[in-house]
Structures are given as C-alpha cells and as structure tokens.
Amino acid sequence: MKNYRTNPEWPLLVHYETNGNLPEEFRNPTGNSRPRMRWWLPSAMLSMDGIEKDIRSMAEAGFSGAEVVPMPRFDTSGDFTIEWGTPKWKAFAGHILQTAAKYNFTIDFSMTPFWPLALPGITDASDPEQGAQMEADCAYLDGITKSRPYSGLIPVPSQAVEDAASAGTLPRLAAVTCARYTDKDTKTLAYSSARAFRLGEEVLQEEGDPLSWKITFCPEDEGEYVLFGWWEHPSGNKTCQNLQLDHYSPKATERLTCYWEKELIPYFGDDFSHMVSLFIDSLEFQTHLDWTWGFLESFREENQYDLAPYLPALYDPDSPGCFVSFPVPEFRFDEHNDQIIRDYQEFLTRLYVDNHLIPLTRFCEKHHINMRYQTSYGKDLELAQTAMYVTIPETETLYGGDILDFYRLQAGSMHLSGKQIYSIEASAEMNGRGNGGVNSGNYQQTWGNQLWHIQRAFSCCVNQAVFHGYSYEGYYDGEGNENGFLPGTHWPGYTTMGYSEFSNNWSSCQPNWLHVNHYTDFLARNQFILRQGTGRIDLAVYRQSYEEIIDFNHAVKLYDDDGLLEQNGYTYDFISPSALALSQTQAAETQHEPRRAVLAPDGPAYKALILDNQNFLPYETALRLREFASEGLPVLFVGSLPQQPAFHLEKEIAPLIQELLLLPWVKQVNTVQEVPAILEELQILPNARYHKRSRILNVCRHTPETDFYYFYNYGDSDTYPQAQEMPAQDTPVTLSGKGLPCLLDTWSGSIHPVAAYQEGDENVTISLHLEPNESCVIALIQNPACLGLDIPSLHTEALTIRAEYDTSGNLYEKAFTGCSLPLENWKLTLEKWSDSPIPSESIKTIFTYDHLDPLVPWKDLPGQENTSGTGIYETSFILEKAWEDNAGYVLKLGEICDSFSLMVNHREIPANQSSSYVDISPFLHRGENTLTITIASTLLNALLDYTSRNAITYHKWQNEIRVPDAYGLWGEVYLLPYEKKVLSSL
Questions:
Q1: How far is it, in rounded angstroms, from Cα 338 to Cα 315?
Q2: C-alpha distances in Å from residue 803, one per residue of 521, 770, 795, 797, 812
Q3: Which residue from 446, 606, 522 is spatially nearest to 937, judged by alpha carbons?
Q4: DSSP-assigned letter for residue 391
Q5: For a FRET experiment, which of 194, 229, 508, 623 has its CA 20 to 30 Å from that of 205?
Q6: Of 775, 695, 767, which Cα lies nearest the Cα of 727?
C-alpha cells in the first residue's frame, strides 16, 4: 500500500504583500499585485545602460518584476553557449539587482543557464557525486527455447554506448532479465515467467571489458523466451554545453544549491534581497527511461519487489521522454502491467519530490525567496502531487494548449495546500501553434489575444501572469559591437527567438506599447482580487495520472461533458490521491449544510467528489473515500466502478467500493451528461448558479467579510479566432453569500454598488452581461463602509431593467430610445512606423486623412498597405440634450485593432478594452462635443514590409507565412441615446 504524506511542511513564503487597504490597492495596485515579465538576455553580451533602459521600460509599463532568462544567441551560428556564472555574468546580474531596487522592481533568476537544468563543472559524469543526468536503455534477443538455449554476450544497446560516449564514459550493466512470450505478434510476455539473473553469479563479466558480459541460459519451461540487457548510463544531454542535472538525485540538487551558496549569493551580497524567486522552466529533458544511481535497489526497498524483471513494460526506445510523445513500450505483460507502470511512475514522482523539489524549496526558504517551478508536466510524473512541494507552482498556455482542465490539474493542489500564488507563463504562440491562428507569431500578437489566454487561466484559479516575453533591446558596448548594439542586430532590435516564430516581443519597439498601462493595471486588479481569502470550488474531480495529453499530443479536455458543469455555473478542481491523503483534507459538516459534509471546509469546501470512469484506485484512497462518504460527503461514480488497486501488490479494493455504494450520499450514473441532474437532485448547487446555460466561467474567493466572484465570457471557444466570433452572454446569476453586491471595475479601479438585485437568506441574485472576451468582478460586501461605500437605502429587484446609481446617489433606469446617432466626418492622423538604421528605433511619418467615410482598415488606405503605427481619429457632433437634461449616450465602437484610448471633450476616460460599448454620458454637454480615439497596432505589417525589401532570413526553423493584418478603426461608430429615468431620489 502506498503511504502518502499526511501532513507535510508546506512552502508558503511569498514576498507579495499588499498595503492592506483593499479599495486603495484596487484603485492603484502596488507592484506586488502586478504581472511579471519573462526577460530574455543574450548571455552576457549586455551593457549596464542597456540593462537600466529595459528595467525602466518594464517598470514604467506597470510590471512588478522580471524573470531573468539568459539565452544563447540563436540568431547567430555557433555552439549556443552562455557565459552564465562567469565574472562577467555576475557583474551584469549584480547590476540587474541594483537597478531593480532603484525602480521598485523585483527579480526572479532562472536557477541555471537556460533549461533543462545544467551546471558548469561536471567533469566526471560516471561519478554519482557529481549529479549528471542518468537514463537506462535496453537491447534484447529472442528465439531462446529449451531446444535452442543461449550462450553468449549480453546485448548492448548502441544508443547507450553513443549517449555515454558523449559524456565521456561507458554504460554500466544494471540488470539482465528474461520473460516468455504469450503472444509474440503483440510482444506480450508472461508475468509469471519474468525473472532477473544474478550479476556476478549467473552473468559474468569478461575481464578488462566493461561492455562484455556473458550468460548461459536454457529455459526450464516450454515456449520462446526473450533475454534483455539493461544498461544505465549518463544521458550526455547538455544545455548550452553543460551536462544536464539528474532531477532524481539528492547529489545533483546539493550541487545546484551549493553552486548558488558559494558562487552567486555571496557575490550579490545585500542586493540579493531584491530577488523574490528562483525559477525553473518545464522539464524538457530527453531520456529513454528515466533513471538515477541506485534506482533498482531503492525501488525494491520502497515497493517490496524487484522491478528489474518487469522493465520491458516501461521501455520505449523510440520515445524522446518528454512532451513530444509519451512512451509506448514494445512489450507488455499479460498481468499487472499497468500497475507496474504506475509503481514506476509513482516512484519517480517521489524521488523527484524528495530529492529535488523539497530540498530546492527549503534552500529557497532558507534564503527568504520563493521557489517558482513548472514542476513536471511533459514527463511521466504526477503533476498534481509535485505542484504541492514548491512555493509557487506554475503552468503555461502553450504546453497546455489553453485547455481549461490543464490549469485545473494544479489548482486542486494549490487550494488544498494553502498556496497564495498560482502562476502562468503567458502566452506563447508560434506560427501554426498556440491557438492564435495559423498566422500568429512574434510582433503580431494583439492585446486582445493576450487577454484571451490570461483570462481563461484566471477563470481556473491562476492569479499571476508572467508575460512571454521581453527581449533585451540589444545595447552592447563590448568587443565586436556595431554602433553600440549586438553584432548583426537590425531593426526592430534584438529578439531572442526569431522575428516570426515564438510570440511575443512585448516592448516599446511595438506601437501598442502605448497602451500597456491600461492592460497591466487591469491584470493587476484582477490578480489582486484573485488572491483574496480562500478559493471556494464547487466540485472535486478525482484524477490519478502521470501523463497529460496536451499541446504536442493534441490537447484534449480531461473531464469532457461538453461544458455542462461550467455552463450551469459549477467550478471544479482535479485532486489526486496525494491531496486526498492530506490531514487537512477532511470531510465535515458546515453551518449551512448540517446533514451533508464538504471536503476541506476551511479551504475549497468541495461539495461533492466525482470519479469519472476511474477503473483503479490506490487502496489508501479507497479507504479515504469510505471515510469521507461516511461523514456525509457526496461521492459520484460516473460510468464504470473502480475494481483494481492502482499499484502492484496492493490489497483488493472491490470490497471497499461495494461498502461505499451502500452509503446514502454515494451515487452512480452512466455518463458525465447525467451529473448536473444528480447534483440538482442532491441539492448541490454551484456557488454561482446561472439561471440559464451560459458560456461563462467563474471563480469564487471567500473572506469573512466579502465573497468575490470573477466572471469571464469564454464563449466555449478553444482558439482565439473562435473567441473573436463568440456571442455576448446574458443570464441572471444567484451568488452564495450575503452583503451588498458591488461591481469592481477592473479597467477603471472604481467600485460601485449594483442597483438591481434580489436578496435571499444566504444568496443574492443579479443580472450578468458580458461581451465577448470580457470579464468582471462582483463582490458581496457585508461591511460596505470598509470600502468607503455608502449603503444605498434603495435598490430595484427588477433584474430586466438597466438600473444604476449616479454620482448624486439617484437610482435611475437607462431607457434606450431605440434610435442611433451616427458619428461621421472623421479625421485621421496616422503615424506610420518604419525601419530605421538604429535597431531600437523606428522612423515615424505622419499622414493626414480628412473626411474619412466610411472608416476602413489602414491597409485599405492608398499607400498604407503595410503600415503599422498609431492613428488618432477625431470627430465632432452636436447634442441638443445631455446629462443635465437626463439624456445619456452609449458610444458603440466599430472594429478595432489593436488597443485604444478615448477622449471626450479633451478629457481621457477609462475604457473597457474588451467591450465595444462605452457610456460616455457624464462627459458630454449640450452643443458641440468632440470625440478622439487613439488606436495603436502591432508591428507586424511594418516588419513584413521591411523583411520583404531586405530579404531577411528570420530563423533556421521557420519561414515567414504571414500576411498583413487589419489595423485601425473601421465599420460603423455611433451613439445610442437613452433617457435617464430617475426611479427614486436617495
């Protein structure tokens, strides 16, 4: 029986404190609430001034800090080395920390140069003390029978010899095993026949040759046998010419932490305090069979049996061992095959946790920084378990294919282990990959596209965005510089991953950086709210998995009910056996549900646990389920019941499952489509209950004083092009909790009471309207005075009318007249950005267009087919009635790409960038009014023009396939008049 940790010491250190004043922090979010930026540096080819320019630019743009990632110069030929750890790098790294302090900016350093993890100084890969990465490979012989015995050498895999040679060593024989075919065509082996031979007794080494081992083997039974030779060896994998580290070895982890303590932390001195985290990217190391020194001995001690005879069930020589494809072994056993695989995967997970994650996190805590880690997706490890053992678990948009369930895989671990921050690498795209469409890539990604990625993640409990990314702008004053820039750099500046490939280069080299603060303020306010109190989640979906079918394998939904739960308002996390084993994961009754229990009442308070066609369970988990259900927790089995223990040599679980089914709160349904009905039958309602099916996602954060609800119109779309076509969503929604409902406007920072709502005993019902790709935050506030709000004495219960309060406290209805006022006769002042001899600058040329009618994209204007830049649109109009006459006006914008700002009568007003409707009534007056709309584009069109004229070769792995985008403002723009009908004067 696997014994999971019941009460581990959780890493909780986070240097992300706020000023404690909620309304002030919401209006003006501090740096700690703000998004962060991945900052790519070209090794140590930097300048002190260049570092300061970049940091100042990011800080002024509203980012809280940067994740420093030194990169090889992929844009030049060479061996892709990095000067990481050299005196030159240390000097620049120290300057980064000093400059960050100057701008109230914080730094996360990647823990080794680039990734996967690797360190300089490993001189003997065959020495376990040095911690070089290990793997195992196999070669085999078959055709062995009683009548055709075998006497000869143990086969040696050529791949093992080749890989070991690249690390300057030889493979070592780890085991020799055999098994009998039960079906040769399918390479099925008899479990009962598998055995390992004793090295040194049954298998003898030829003197002087470590690769020559001999055996004489004559089977005792009938049938054809296969003889396997298993060889362990350093993988030889390198990152920037440094051997990669063994992620399962305590010696490798010790070597890594000692490097920091001896080489880097003392050098930084007091400046080290300006760091908040060490960062490690996703595990992209490639090994045929993950291994470490002493693997078989440690496995036998942990699992009470010898794994060696069953290694054929694990080994796929064609698998690279990460993210491209998961292993599909050539052989399998006729019994216990899957259980043995899970034993191996669970053992790897525990080695990784015990020997790598826990020591690294303790090291970080010792030095008062966080361990932020994309812990294990893409490898044969249990992601939900590994996420619990770092300070800040991180996910990403690209690897998970933006599938919502991918974010939920770590959310349950986050909630049950009490973590404050759940981070995301957002939002890499590549031409043809990343859900931005076929024509997406660097310098093309729009702000709307970025919000689509991030808001999807926010709606699954992520609460920190790290942009991907910001390229160092290219300033270089070292040897070989070209006019103060990196050699070979041309307009629009140095970029790390090519000019057309991975997006995006977020920086002032792009016109849409003009509006960056609109977006960083917006994201900061959302992140601040999504860190309040405790996340409350409706349902837990059980999942034990060591392989996730994601990006490179075609992302799929993990709990696939066609969105039924989501579209009825339910939220859910995935939780693993390790999470269920925690001592704080208890089932207990609550004040509002005295007959029924919830899971983790002081945390997410799951109202039910769902097992979706789960045909196996660890014995310990089955015991826990029986315990929870006996306490009154509803447990729903969908489809087939678990019948097999998850691991080899475990006790049978079938009797426990039968006991479970006798309990009153345990139900079984045939399909996931039946789950909402059975939940309703059990009176298990979502925290945010939609009155009609809606393509809206929600998150609830609970504090003793306030319940915060985040809503996002995801449109049931899994790509950004689909999202651009999604419809608006309208529904009444009943929110669990008590208090005054307030809208927290995350675009402007204002907080307003909701004027139309209905109160129940323990809930409040409001009407919800969200435009495509739009989100909002509603709070139920029990003490509005704490937010500086006066409690309105009146509200309306008519949810169908558009009711609001004006600044004088009057309750009024917006009664639209049904007509519209077209806005015409536009003047456009177009600032065109073009290539410049100075790589980091653009030449800007002004074009003026008077009396534009109709409005069209810039590329449809004569001579502007390849224009990027900014455009200022101006028009004037006459109003006979205005706000003082109880007349209001909603501005309906046309199509816009990319970002925009509004001025009404020369006064800038906050605008929701995700909505085409803006109420500008308070800023209008009788007579002539002026409207100014400033649009900023991406740099794509100008870049395409430049590269076509200069025959620029972007990158060795991708050619340009993109065409110019439509920029600017086009279509109809008009005002929608309404009468301000005062319902009551307060």
A1: 13
A2: 27, 16, 9, 10, 6
A3: 446
A4: S
A5: 194
A6: 695
Backbone angles phi, psi at 95, to 5 degrees: -65, -35
Please give the Cα distance from 33 to 863 (Å, whole number).
44
Instruction: Assess contact for 639 and 670: CB atoms under 8 A.
Output: yes
Question: How far is it, in rounded angstroms, from Cα 412 to Cα 540?
Answer: 8
Q: Which letter does DSSP use for residue 375 in this model?
A: -
556: left (phi over 0), alpha (psi -120 to 50) or beta: beta
Three-class DSSP category at 641: coil
Q: What is the pLDDT of residue 953?
A: 54
- State the 10-residue block means of pLDDT for the chain, 986 residues long: 77 63 91 94 95 98 97 71 91 98 96 92 95 98 98 97 97 98 98 98 93 97 97 96 96 98 96 95 94 98 98 93 80 98 98 98 96 93 96 93 94 94 94 77 94 97 97 94 93 87 92 98 98 97 88 76 97 96 86 80 96 97 96 97 97 96 96 97 97 97 96 92 91 97 97 96 97 97 86 92 90 94 97 96 97 95 97 98 95 97 96 96 97 98 92 58 94 97 72
Question: Which residue's entry shows tokens 């709307």?
Answer: 448
Q: What whole-number distance in Å separates Cα of residue 512 and Cα of residue 506? A: 9
- The matching CATH number, chosen from 2.60.40.1180, 3.40.50.300, 2.40.50.100, 2.40.10.10, for 688-805 is 2.60.40.1180
Q: Are 105 and 55 in contact (CB under 8 A)?
A: yes
For residue 574, the one-letter residue type is: F
Amino acid identity, residue 213? W
Does the fold of domain 688-805 match that of domain 22-119+247-286+344-532? no
Two structure tokens written together for 200: 């040194």
pLDDT tens readout for residues 404-444: 999 999 999 999 999 999 999 999 998 767 888 777 889 99
Cα angle 444, 446, 452; round to 5? 130
Q: What separation in angstroms does the CA of 478 have from each of 53, 56, 91, 352, 475?
A: 17, 22, 14, 41, 10
What is the chain's length?
A: 986
Q: Does domain 22-119+247-286+344-532 have CATH number 3.30.565.10?
A: no
Residue that has been written with the tokens 């696939």 in this structure = 560
E strands along 729-842, which residues? 729-736, 740-744, 751-753, 758-759, 763-770, 775-781, 803-805, 811-816, 821-822, 826-834
Q: Which residues contact 121 (CB under 8 A, 6 or more apart)?
A: 259
DSSP secondary structure, 183-195, as one string:
ETTTTEE-GGG-E
283 vs 806: CA distance, rounded Å: 54
Helix (H) or strand (E) holding 255: helix 250-259
Beta bridge partners of 781: 706, 740
Tokens found for residue 183: 């079906």
Cα→Cα distances 11→220, 316, 382, 531, 695, Å: 55, 36, 19, 17, 36
* Residue boundaries of the structural domains of the chain: 22-119+247-286+344-532, 134-234+290-336, 576-681, 688-805, 821-984
The CATH class of the 821-984 domain is mainly beta
- The helix/strand/coil state of 450 is helix
The angle that helices 654-661 and 619-631 make with each other, rounded to 10 degrees, is 10
How far is residue 838's CA from residue 485's CA, in Å, rounded to a whole number? 9
631 membership: H or E segment, kind and range: helix 619-631
